[in-house]
# Entry
Amino acid sequence: MTPPRRRSERGVPAFPRRDLLKLGGVTLVAAVFGQPPRGRPVAAQTARQGGTLTIRAWDPPHFDPMLTTSFKTYIPYTFTHSRLLKHRAGPSVRPGTFPIEGDLAESWTQPSETTYVFKLRKGVRWHPKPPVNGRELTAEDVRYSVERFRTVRGNANASRLAPVAKVEALDRHTVRFTLKAPFAWFPDMIASPMALPIIARECVRKFGDLKKPEAVVGTGPWMLERYDPGARLVMVRNPHYFVPGLPSIDRVELVVDEDPAARLAAFAQGKYDLGVEFPGSIDRADWEPVRKKRPNLRSLEFPSNIMSHISMRTDRPPFTDARVRRAMSLAINRQRMIEATYEGAGVLNPPVPAALREWSIPIDQLGESGRYYAYDPAEARRLLAQAGHASGFSTTLDFTTYGSTVLVDQMQQILKDLKNVGIEVRLNQKEYEAYFATTFYGKYEGIAYGPQTPFLEPDSFLYGQYYPGQPKNQSRVNDPALSGMLARQRRIPDVVRRRELIYEIQRYLASQQYYLQMPASLYVAVWDPALKNFGPNLGYDYGGRLTAAWLDR
# Structure
């Protein structure tokens, strides 16, 4: 998963605060999504071939995407590997939306509610590197990749393809998926860069897994030429990429740069072509000083889908009582959190992050349940007394810093706000590895606070976090009425009807407060004006967003 943003500590001037943060930032969301990129307008141009693009990146823990949930592995794979489907990219795609198109799949059909058939492009070849050596990709490669994803021990994301009953290679270029039940989100799942890269069996056979850089052999637009741990990953153009003329950029250098001050200075001097923070953005406090040095930079603002929340053991008192959960939500001053940790520019999140603009219900449409996102400590105390806790109660909070000062500041505010209504919270701070192995998967005693995986569709935020038995159901939610709605939305093929039910689910969840959603920041995505035909968006798909881009310099 992706860590929360680290707030600047260098004392540079803050970006001017917005005065549009009324009603939980609803008006701000509309303004941000409607904002065109900053910079000079660009006339229609013909794509140029060549050039080197330089991006700030991270050292991956290893290179096997099915044995980690780290964005540090997923991002390089978006350059080197293909998927059956992918998200359309480019300046015409609005951030927070993810239209689906074919990648390895030339076309696909859905003969029944539980069957999908994909016709693969012919002539797609693996990178001309051992042990695969440029052979043609076949349907058997797809079948093998799906089976490994579903069955390899240690894949924390295996549940994303749990609805698949079987996958078959019908012939050399045809793949059929049979699902256990109707699952309307299936195309979204296989298009996700955190789900299903198509891998080569030969690499697993030779190396035992895909952890070594030598095992990074795909069919994607670039090839991994070199990996220098602690320094850089170098990608070079795949001359046999299956889309004629693409990619246009010959070389991409992903520079490992973990020093915030150093990478900001390097960006200001023009070393990097994209913003140095995920996903190609810059910290808001740094934007004005950098823009003075690089006045022609292009930019676009949009909400982050990295949503932190408070989870709690709803299977144990006092959190079995909805009045207690509502009181806790009312006790937290989310607007103050936006001002203090996001430079005054952020949005409130309902159960589906506001960043997913097609699926997140606006706060002002939550009805009566919307009041639980307001700050009202007096009402919080009244509800606690009504629930039999007039003198409050005590609990523990599991927490890890993720290396983020923002997260630490938010945690400290949460402790103070809860104490203000009589809830004494003892901090149980853990190392990241211990937190991820236990708390992140619901193994804790009282409450917990931390960021969630930035999914690109609502089902993972809803079914994945609220349905009984799901690995990321951190609050141990077991609500039959809710479970029925969560299962039903998965079966609705019509997008309009599915959205109506997802809005209804979010209204219900707002009333129950099984998790307490915290605000999200606004990304300030920035890129060099020489980078043409590029559009920023959420998520890990750096390679997908750059495949059709080119450099004009």
